[in-house]
């Protein structure tokens, strides 16, 4: 497809947004709903025609799905009497299985090769994000269960999206993958304990039950995926191609279900929650980066620590909120954090991609002289 087609899509997106805003101001919000949805869909498809915007297509589609859930929540709460929230746990398990199929024992080799970087990354992640989350929850003024969701996001391990962002940001991909793998394996023990001590003042936390939930939702599926990868590596190419797509669709559907279920709460406190989540995410990047600087790490490794600290496994946090029976309250912050994290991560990656690490510049100068 030529550029004209993608430009036309972006024009359609602009027209939809303008019309939606006019209708909203006129008090015809329900009529504006399809236009807001059309704006995000057309914008996401239009981004496909531009290399520097292509990475935002998935995020735009997530926003389209979220807006759909806000305007038509009944379609995502139950279907023929079946509560769609029952799909959250199996969807998370499928996503984690997909993560496992892309992993191997080599992903843990960084623990031996660069133990210092891995320790700094993992420890920073489990200190910085939980403490920021606790601070924001304490000053937010939100009802305790919604505030606890902010802490839950902070206590979660790294998300696999951090590996993609690290690659695009010209960070240390090997270190990123290892930190993600190690933090995920530690999650069954670290996340429940952090939640017990930090979120215990907001809601009752059953640390043992949460540990078991993480094992069932995260560790067992990842282990099964790694076993599958070891036994059938290269023999099921269709699955290798399908799993990333299934994972993206799964995450989108989980976010939509939680958004629909918690719609009333989200409409009341949406702007404040978005602001808190954004501050949480950006503080994670910033403090992560300067932690690397504090330990005199290279620019490439500092970028890695920043990304690994700031990006969370929001999908796992959503699943835990569902297992706690508090999807419509505790689950809201993870549902907001996921899409916003993808936006800020993509922007950060685009910025760093245009600014090669100092060590890369020095290497280039050496080879050209």
What portion of the residues fall into strands of 2 or more residues? under 5%
Which ranges are low-confidence, i.e. pLDDT below 50, for 5 or more consecutive residues? none
Q: What is the overall shape?
A: globular
CATH topology of the largest domain: Na+/H+ antiporter like fold
Give the strand tally.
2
Q: Please state how the strands of the largest beta sheet are arranged side by side.
A: 1-2
In summary, what is this structure?
This protein has 369 residues and is mostly helical. It has 16 helices and two strands.
What does this structure look like?
- With 369 residues, this protein is mainly α.
- It has two domains: 1-80; 82-359, Na+/H+ antiporter like fold.
- The protein has 16 helices and two strands.
- The chain has a two-stranded antiparallel sheet.
- Helix 3 packs parallel to helix 11 and helix 8 (161-168) crosses helix 9 (173-198).
Task: List the defining traits of the structure above.
single chain, 369 residues, mainly alpha, Na+/H+ antiporter like fold, 2 domains, two-stranded antiparallel sheet, 16 helices, 2 strands, globular
């Amino acid at each position: 497809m030529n550029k004209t087609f993608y430009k036309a899509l972006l024009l359609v997106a602009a027209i939809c947004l303008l019309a939606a805003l006019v209708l909203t101001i006129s008090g015809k919000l329900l009529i504006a709903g399809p236009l807001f949805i059309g704006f995000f869909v057309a914008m996401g498809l239009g981004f496909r025609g531009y290399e520097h915007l292509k990475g935002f297509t998935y995020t735009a589609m997530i926003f389209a799905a979220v807006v759909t859930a806000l305007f038509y929540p009944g379609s995502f709460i139950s279907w023929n009497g079946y509560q769609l929230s029952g799909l959250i746990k199996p969807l998370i398990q499928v996503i984690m299985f997909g993560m496992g199929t892309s992993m191997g024992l080599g992903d843990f080799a960084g623990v031996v090769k660069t133990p210092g970087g891995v320790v700094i990354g993992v420890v920073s992640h489990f200190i910085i994000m939980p403490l920021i989350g606790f601070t924001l929850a304490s000053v937010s003024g939100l009802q305790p269960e919604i505030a606890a969701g902010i802490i839950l996001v902070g206590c979660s391990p790294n998300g696999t999206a951090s590996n993609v962002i690290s690659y695009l940001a010209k960070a240390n991909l090997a270190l990123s993958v290892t930190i993600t793998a190690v933090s995920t394996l530690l999650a069954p023990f670290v996340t429940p304990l952090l939640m017990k001590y930090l979120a215990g003042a907001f809601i009752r936390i059953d640390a043992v039950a949460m540990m078991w939930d993480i094992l069932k939702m995260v560790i067992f599926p990842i282990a099964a995926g790694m076993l599958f990868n070891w036994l059938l590596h290269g023999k099921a190419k269709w699955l290798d191609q399908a799993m990333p797509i299934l994972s993206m669709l799964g995450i989108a559907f989980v976010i939509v279900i939680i958004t629909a279920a918690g719609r009333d709460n989200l409409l009341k406190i949406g702007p404040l929650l978005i602001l808190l989540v954004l501050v949480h995410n950006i503080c994670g990047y910033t403090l992560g980066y300067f932690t690397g600087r504090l330990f005199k790490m290279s620019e490439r490794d500092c970028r890695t620590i920043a990304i690994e600290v700031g990006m969370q496994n929001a999908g796992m946090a959503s699943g835990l909120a569902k297992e706690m029976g508090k999807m419509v309250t505790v689950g809201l912050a993870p549902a907001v954090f996921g899409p916003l994290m993808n936006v800020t991560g993509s922007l950060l990656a685009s910025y760093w991609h245009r600014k090669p690490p100092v060590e890369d510049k020095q290497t280039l100068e050496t080879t050209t002289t």
